[in-house]
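tool_log.txt
---
The assistant was asked to compare two proteins side by side. It first ran the structure predictor on the initial sequence, then on the second. Raw inputs and outputs are pasted verbatim so the downstream comparison step can read them without reformatting.
(1)
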Amino acid sequence: MAKKLAASEKRLVKEQQHAVVVLDQWHVDPAYKEKAREKFLENNKEFKKYKKDYCNFSMSMMGGSESNSHEISRISCVASQNLYYIEQVEENLRYIRKK
């Protein structure tokens, strides 16, 4: 599971970097481009916080498990959230017309 988490984190960073490049190539007024870039970077920070809070809440619903199931579930939760966010970013980038 740790390898899957690491892979999802690596893919997330790569997708976030790619999105910035795509936004920079967007064929639109520079003011709109800058605003979108700014909001995207802000959203990335918010996602990091949301992901942590969401997975902490999810873990709290497991109760007092004695095994390592909490850690396995936490890793699974974080990886799943990463992949879902990547899908959202990819979907939004489909609508950008490049120069």
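(2)
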Amino acid sequence: MEMAYHGGGFSERVATRGELCLCGRPALVVFAIGDAAPFGWCLFNDGGAQFGPCPFCGGPRHTCERCPDYELAPDWAAYSTHRPGTRPDNWPERLGR
């Protein structure tokens, strides 16, 4: 789906299956701001309710910044049925956890 440009380097589009919010929930909207990588938003501003480990790195939740391991559409998200705050069965082996 094409991004809707709003000026000032800000654009958005409807998220597609497998795209995730910064908190790990399925994204409903994807934003692109300036030169930064696009990111998803689930419409909740609770940081994943700070429940459980970060779904991208497995460490503690990040409070004010994007996880360095965040991916908009990680391979495991497209077919995962995990609940936020839990690790999916297909958790990336690269994390070694």
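---
observation on (2): The longest strand covers residues 10-14. Confidence is low (pLDDT under 50) at residues 90-97.
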